[in-house]
Protein backbone atom coordinates (compact mmCIF):
# COMPACT_ATOMS: atom_id res chain seq x y z
CA UNK A 1 0.00 0.00 0.00
CA UNK A 2 1.16 3.55 -0.74
CA UNK A 3 2.61 5.10 2.43
CA UNK A 4 0.55 8.30 2.08
CA UNK A 5 -2.63 6.23 1.74
CA UNK A 6 -1.56 4.27 4.81
CA UNK A 7 -1.21 7.54 6.74
CA UNK A 8 -4.67 8.63 5.59
CA UNK A 9 -6.19 5.32 6.69
CA UNK A 10 -4.55 5.59 10.13
CA UNK A 11 -6.77 8.59 10.90
CA UNK A 12 -9.72 6.20 11.19
CA UNK A 13 -10.67 3.69 13.86
CA UNK A 14 -12.22 0.90 11.83
CA UNK A 15 -14.05 -1.72 13.86
CA UNK A 16 -16.44 -2.97 11.16
CA UNK A 17 -16.64 -3.38 7.42
CA UNK A 18 -18.93 -0.34 7.30
CA UNK A 19 -16.17 1.71 8.96
CA UNK A 20 -13.72 0.54 6.30
CA UNK A 21 -16.24 1.31 3.56
CA UNK A 22 -16.67 4.89 4.83
CA UNK A 23 -12.91 5.36 5.22
CA UNK A 24 -12.34 4.12 1.67
CA UNK A 25 -14.91 6.53 0.28
CA UNK A 26 -13.39 9.50 2.11
CA UNK A 27 -9.88 8.65 0.95
CA UNK A 28 -11.12 8.51 -2.65
CA UNK A 29 -12.89 11.86 -2.15
CA UNK A 30 -9.65 13.47 -0.98
CA UNK A 31 -7.64 11.97 -3.85
CA UNK A 32 -10.26 13.38 -6.21
CA UNK A 33 -9.78 16.85 -4.69
CA UNK A 34 -6.03 16.50 -5.22
CA UNK A 35 -6.57 15.56 -8.86
CA UNK A 36 -8.85 18.54 -9.40
CA UNK A 37 -6.27 20.81 -7.76
CA UNK A 38 -3.53 19.53 -10.06
CA UNK A 39 -5.81 20.15 -13.04
CA UNK A 40 -6.38 23.80 -12.10
CA UNK A 41 -10.05 23.31 -11.31
CA UNK A 42 -10.02 25.56 -8.24
CA UNK A 43 -9.09 28.59 -10.33
CA UNK A 44 -12.67 28.38 -11.60
CA UNK A 45 -14.66 26.73 -8.83
CA UNK A 46 -15.17 26.37 -5.08
CA UNK A 47 -15.92 23.31 -2.96
CA UNK A 48 -19.04 23.36 -0.80
CA UNK A 49 -21.65 21.07 0.77
CA UNK A 50 -21.54 18.34 3.39
CA UNK A 51 -18.30 16.70 2.27
CA UNK A 52 -16.53 20.09 2.30
CA UNK A 53 -17.77 20.53 5.84
CA UNK A 54 -16.61 17.03 6.80
CA UNK A 55 -13.10 17.30 5.36
CA UNK A 56 -12.22 20.89 6.25
CA UNK A 57 -14.35 21.71 9.29
CA UNK A 58 -14.58 18.35 11.04
CA UNK A 59 -18.31 17.66 10.67
CA UNK A 60 -18.88 14.46 12.65
CA UNK A 61 -20.88 12.56 10.06
CA UNK A 62 -19.96 10.91 6.79
CA UNK A 63 -20.95 12.52 3.50
CA UNK A 64 -21.36 10.92 0.08
CA UNK A 65 -20.96 13.43 -2.74
CA UNK A 66 -18.54 16.11 -3.92
CA UNK A 67 -20.33 19.42 -4.59
CA UNK A 68 -18.75 22.37 -6.37
CA UNK A 69 -19.85 25.74 -7.69
CA UNK A 70 -18.27 28.04 -10.22
CA UNK A 71 -16.98 31.33 -8.87
CA UNK A 72 -18.83 33.16 -11.65
CA UNK A 73 -21.79 32.02 -13.80
CA UNK A 74 -20.68 30.27 -17.00
CA UNK A 75 -23.33 27.96 -18.45
CA UNK A 76 -20.92 26.77 -21.18
CA UNK A 77 -18.28 25.60 -18.68
CA UNK A 78 -16.91 22.16 -19.53
CA UNK A 79 -16.39 19.81 -16.58
CA UNK A 80 -15.07 17.14 -18.94
CA UNK A 81 -11.61 18.70 -19.30
CA UNK A 82 -10.92 18.17 -15.59
CA UNK A 83 -11.91 14.50 -15.57
CA UNK A 84 -8.57 13.39 -17.04
CA UNK A 85 -6.42 14.84 -14.23
CA UNK A 86 -8.83 13.42 -11.66
CA UNK A 87 -8.70 9.95 -13.22
CA UNK A 88 -4.91 10.11 -13.52
CA UNK A 89 -4.58 11.02 -9.84
CA UNK A 90 -6.63 8.03 -8.73
CA UNK A 91 -4.62 5.74 -11.00
CA UNK A 92 -1.31 7.13 -9.68
CA UNK A 93 -2.23 5.76 -6.25
CA UNK A 94 -3.09 2.36 -7.70
CA UNK A 95 -6.86 2.76 -7.76
CA UNK A 96 -8.79 1.13 -10.59
CA UNK A 97 -11.70 3.53 -11.03
CA UNK A 98 -13.69 5.07 -13.83
CA UNK A 99 -14.61 8.76 -13.92
CA UNK A 100 -17.34 9.68 -16.39
CA UNK A 101 -19.45 12.76 -16.94
CA UNK A 102 -23.20 12.23 -17.08
CA UNK A 103 -24.64 13.81 -20.21
CA UNK A 104 -28.03 15.35 -19.46
CA UNK A 105 -30.79 15.78 -22.01
CA UNK A 106 -32.21 18.91 -20.36
CA UNK A 107 -30.57 22.33 -20.10
CA UNK A 108 -29.61 22.02 -16.45
CA UNK A 109 -27.09 24.42 -14.92
CA UNK A 110 -25.66 21.49 -12.96
CA UNK A 111 -22.92 19.30 -14.46
CA UNK A 112 -22.54 15.79 -13.03
CA UNK A 113 -19.92 13.08 -13.11
CA UNK A 114 -19.40 9.80 -11.25
CA UNK A 115 -16.37 8.06 -9.78
CA UNK A 116 -16.91 4.30 -9.68
CA UNK A 117 -14.84 1.31 -8.67
CA UNK A 118 -15.19 -2.09 -7.06
CA UNK A 119 -15.67 -1.78 -3.30
CA UNK A 120 -14.19 -5.19 -2.47
CA UNK A 121 -11.16 -4.71 -4.72
CA UNK A 122 -10.28 -1.38 -3.13
CA UNK A 123 -10.90 -2.51 0.43
CA UNK A 124 -8.26 -5.14 -0.27
CA UNK A 125 -5.94 -2.59 -1.93
CA UNK A 126 -6.31 0.29 0.55
CA UNK A 127 -7.45 -1.24 3.82
CA UNK A 128 -5.52 -4.51 3.46
CA UNK A 129 -8.73 -6.39 4.23
CA UNK A 130 -8.12 -10.03 3.36
CA UNK A 131 -10.49 -11.71 0.88
CA UNK A 132 -13.18 -12.86 0.93
CA UNK A 133 -14.58 -9.62 2.39
CA UNK A 134 -17.53 -10.52 4.59
CA UNK A 135 -20.51 -8.20 4.19
CA UNK A 136 -19.48 -6.87 0.78
CA UNK A 137 -20.99 -8.25 -2.41
CA UNK A 138 -18.24 -8.94 -4.97
CA UNK A 139 -20.16 -6.80 -7.47
CA UNK A 140 -20.68 -3.84 -5.11
CA UNK A 141 -19.55 -0.53 -6.58
CA UNK A 142 -18.14 2.39 -4.62
CA UNK A 143 -19.85 5.38 -6.21
CA UNK A 144 -19.12 9.07 -5.63
CA UNK A 145 -21.18 11.70 -7.39
CA UNK A 146 -19.60 14.98 -8.47
CA UNK A 147 -21.86 17.96 -9.09
CA UNK A 148 -20.91 21.41 -10.36
CA UNK A 149 -23.28 24.40 -10.33
CA UNK A 150 -22.50 26.59 -13.35
CA UNK A 151 -24.99 29.31 -12.34
CA UNK A 152 -24.05 30.20 -8.75
CA UNK A 153 -26.01 32.81 -6.79
CA UNK A 154 -23.96 35.86 -5.74
CA UNK A 155 -22.65 37.11 -2.39
CA UNK A 156 -20.81 33.98 -1.23
CA UNK A 157 -17.51 34.31 0.61
CA UNK A 158 -14.62 32.07 -0.46
CA UNK A 159 -11.37 31.03 1.19
CA UNK A 160 -8.38 28.83 0.49
CA UNK A 161 -7.91 25.73 2.64
CA UNK A 162 -4.92 23.40 2.72
CA UNK A 163 -4.44 19.66 3.09
CA UNK A 164 -1.20 17.79 3.78
CA UNK A 165 -2.17 14.25 2.78
CA UNK A 166 -1.53 12.46 0.55
CA UNK A 167 0.65 15.46 -0.50
CA UNK A 168 0.22 19.18 0.25
CA UNK A 169 -2.45 20.84 -1.91
CA UNK A 170 -5.04 23.61 -1.68
CA UNK A 171 -8.78 23.80 -2.24
CA UNK A 172 -10.82 26.93 -2.81
CA UNK A 173 -14.10 26.65 -0.93
CA UNK A 174 -17.01 28.59 0.49
CA UNK A 175 -16.40 30.10 3.91
CA UNK A 176 -18.39 28.80 6.88
CA UNK A 177 -21.15 31.49 6.86
CA UNK A 178 -21.77 30.85 3.14
CA UNK A 179 -21.77 27.07 3.64
CA UNK A 180 -24.33 27.61 6.39
CA UNK A 181 -26.46 29.71 4.02
CA UNK A 182 -26.47 26.86 1.51
CA UNK A 183 -27.55 24.44 4.21
CA UNK A 184 -30.40 26.67 5.43
CA UNK A 185 -31.58 27.01 1.82
CA UNK A 186 -31.56 23.22 1.44
CA UNK A 187 -33.40 22.77 4.73
CA UNK A 188 -36.11 25.21 3.63
CA UNK A 189 -36.41 24.33 -0.04
CA UNK A 190 -35.03 20.87 -0.83
CA UNK A 191 -37.63 18.69 -2.53
CA UNK A 192 -37.26 14.97 -1.96
CA UNK A 193 -40.82 14.06 -2.89
CA UNK A 194 -42.31 12.65 0.33
CA UNK A 195 -38.97 12.05 2.06
CA UNK A 196 -37.05 14.38 4.34
CA UNK A 197 -33.27 14.60 4.27
CA UNK A 198 -32.27 14.24 7.90
CA UNK A 199 -28.68 15.17 7.05
CA UNK A 200 -29.84 18.74 6.43
CA UNK A 201 -31.18 18.95 9.99
CA UNK A 202 -28.10 17.30 11.48
CA UNK A 203 -25.81 19.79 9.75
CA UNK A 204 -28.07 22.70 10.73
CA UNK A 205 -27.77 21.76 14.42
CA UNK A 206 -24.00 21.34 13.97
CA UNK A 207 -23.65 24.88 12.60
CA UNK A 208 -25.70 26.24 15.49
CA UNK A 209 -23.56 24.35 18.01
CA UNK A 210 -20.52 26.20 16.65
CA UNK A 211 -22.29 29.57 16.68
CA UNK A 212 -21.60 29.93 12.96
CA UNK A 213 -22.79 33.30 11.61
CA UNK A 214 -25.17 33.06 8.66
CA UNK A 215 -24.44 34.80 5.35
CA UNK A 216 -27.89 36.33 4.93
CA UNK A 217 -27.06 38.04 1.62
CA UNK A 218 -26.06 34.74 0.02
CA UNK A 219 -29.08 32.95 1.49
CA UNK A 220 -31.38 35.65 0.08
CA UNK A 221 -29.71 35.29 -3.33
CA UNK A 222 -30.27 31.53 -3.25
CA UNK A 223 -33.92 31.97 -2.27
CA UNK A 224 -34.46 34.47 -5.09
CA UNK A 225 -32.82 32.16 -7.61
CA UNK A 226 -35.17 29.30 -6.73
CA UNK A 227 -38.27 31.51 -6.57
CA UNK A 228 -38.70 31.32 -2.79
CA UNK A 229 -38.12 35.06 -2.33
CA UNK A 230 -39.31 37.84 -4.62
CA UNK A 231 -36.54 39.70 -6.46
CA UNK A 232 -37.60 42.98 -4.84
CA UNK A 233 -37.96 41.44 -1.36
CA UNK A 234 -35.36 41.63 1.40
CA UNK A 235 -34.80 38.77 3.86
CA UNK A 236 -35.03 39.96 7.45
CA UNK A 237 -33.86 37.85 10.37
CA UNK A 238 -37.34 37.54 11.89
CA UNK A 239 -38.76 36.49 8.50
CA UNK A 240 -36.16 33.74 8.23
CA UNK A 241 -36.91 32.49 11.74
CA UNK A 242 -40.63 32.30 10.95
CA UNK A 243 -39.89 30.36 7.75
CA UNK A 244 -37.75 27.90 9.70
CA UNK A 245 -40.31 27.41 12.47
CA UNK A 246 -43.03 26.75 9.89
CA UNK A 247 -40.75 24.22 8.18
CA UNK A 248 -40.12 22.35 11.43
CA UNK A 249 -43.86 21.86 11.90
CA UNK A 250 -44.04 20.03 8.55
CA UNK A 251 -41.25 17.53 9.19
CA UNK A 252 -41.58 13.87 10.14
CA UNK A 253 -38.60 13.78 12.50
CA UNK A 254 -38.77 10.00 12.93
CA UNK A 255 -38.13 9.71 9.20
CA UNK A 256 -35.43 12.39 9.42
CA UNK A 257 -33.59 10.40 12.09
CA UNK A 258 -33.68 7.25 9.95
CA UNK A 259 -32.13 9.12 7.03
CA UNK A 260 -29.08 10.21 9.00
CA UNK A 261 -28.54 7.30 11.43
CA UNK A 262 -26.15 5.42 9.13
CA UNK A 263 -23.92 8.48 8.75
CA UNK A 264 -23.31 9.23 12.44
CA UNK A 265 -21.36 7.34 15.09
CA UNK A 266 -23.86 8.02 17.89
CA UNK A 267 -27.49 7.67 16.73
CA UNK A 268 -28.62 8.31 20.33
CA UNK A 269 -27.62 11.95 19.80
CA UNK A 270 -30.73 12.26 17.59
CA UNK A 271 -33.16 11.26 20.35
CA UNK A 272 -34.31 14.83 21.08
CA UNK A 273 -35.19 15.62 17.48
CA UNK A 274 -38.64 17.18 17.23
CA UNK A 275 -40.27 20.41 16.06
CA UNK A 276 -39.92 21.77 19.61
CA UNK A 277 -36.20 20.92 19.72
CA UNK A 278 -35.38 22.66 16.43
CA UNK A 279 -37.59 25.61 17.31
CA UNK A 280 -35.77 26.01 20.62
CA UNK A 281 -32.24 25.84 19.24
CA UNK A 282 -33.16 28.22 16.41
CA UNK A 283 -34.49 30.83 18.81
CA UNK A 284 -31.49 30.44 21.11
CA UNK A 285 -28.55 30.05 18.73
CA UNK A 286 -29.29 31.31 15.19
CA UNK A 287 -27.27 34.44 14.34
CA UNK A 288 -28.79 36.36 11.44
CA UNK A 289 -26.66 39.50 11.56
CA UNK A 290 -25.07 40.78 8.37
CA UNK A 291 -21.84 39.17 7.18
Provide an overview of this structure.
The chain starts with a helix and ends in a 6-residue tail after the last helix. The protein is built from eleven helices and seven strands. It is an alpha+beta fold and 291 residues long. The protein has two domains: 3-174, no CATH class; 177-285, no CATH class. The longest helix has 22 residues, at 17-38. The radius of gyration is 20 Å and the shape is globular. The mean pLDDT is 94. 43% of the residues lie in helices and 15% in strands. Helix 9 (237-250) packs antiparallel against helix 11.
Number of domain modules = 2
Return residue spans where pLDDT drops below 50 for at least 5 consecutive residues: none
CA-based shape: globular
Helix fraction bin: 40-55%
Structural class: alpha+beta
> Which series of helices and strands comes N to C?
HHEHEHEEHEEEHHHHHH
Q: What fraction strand?
A: 15-25%
Radius of gyration: 20 Å
Describe the strand arrangement of the main beta sheet, using strand numbers. Answer: 1-2-5-4-3
| Largest sheet geometry | 5 strands, mixed
Q: Mean pLDDT, as a whole number?
A: 94
Number of extended strands: 7
Structure summary:
With 291 residues, the protein is of the alpha+beta class. The protein has helices at 3-9, 17-38, 50-57, 83-92, 119-127, 176-189, 198-209, 216-225, 237-250, 253-260, 275-285; strands at 45-48, 66-70, 98-102, 110-118, 141-149, 158-163, 169-174.
